[in-house]
Design a protein that fits this description.
The chain is an all-alpha fold. The chain has helices at about 15-30, 35-55, 70-90, 90-100, 105, 115-140, 150-175, 180-195, 210-215, 220-230, 235-265. The protein contains eleven helices and no strands. The longest helix has 30 residues, at about 235-265.
Amino acid sequence: MTAVESSGRVVGKWHGAWLRVEGHWTWYRRHWLTTLYSTGLQPVLFLAAMGLGFGSQVRPGAVTGGLSYLQYIAPALLAAGAAQQAVGESSYPVLSGFKWQKDYLAVTATPVSPGQVLGGHLIWSALRLTLAGAIYAFVALFFGAWTGPGVLLVIVAGTVTGLACTTPMTALAARTSDEGQRFGLIFRFVVMPMTLFSGTFFPISQLPAAIRWLAWLSPLWHGSQLARGVSVGGVGGWAMLGHFAVLAALFAAGWALAHRAFYERLVV
């Protein structure tokens, strides 16, 4: 019997993940216009409505740290937009990879592993969040929303906030087998209340003490504080480190759950 040598080759860990990113980019460059609203424009509209519209009725004071209301909410709206985008792009699109389009099944039939599929999704999410943050920051510049060069770090804070929401949502989507009805409930009863009551539009000190702890659990509150700290100040160094540590812990816990779920669902 003649031995047949395999012509295949092992795909490196990072190489496999970047192959998935290449696939996402191929789709995106053809359909980027359909994502323009979620990629930066949605939070800009919020900024125009709340910062220029409603904000024109709010005088600078102790609550806003002496800033105009526009400058006060601009960093937090970037973080809020990142959180909303992260949840949106890690819910139905991830479920589709398993259930409808089944491209995850097709990809893992090649030398690309489930972990690399997950890695590609997270890398692509980080790139998309950074792009959305950059677009928002650039447009908000013309509104007079920024007070200094800290805007560059605000973009990073937005990406970190988004990733802290991406991995838990990806883990949930990977364990969803129905049509994803739970995603609508999450958007309605988690994402929107989180956006409204996590310090985006007013300090959480204005909330009743009995429910203030809910804001402390929210990744968006930590992201908003981080974004404000690097752009307009007012947040101590140790507090900044604590906010970052919470977001990093959420990302790591979500990644561990998602990694396990991807292998359980894609390895037969």
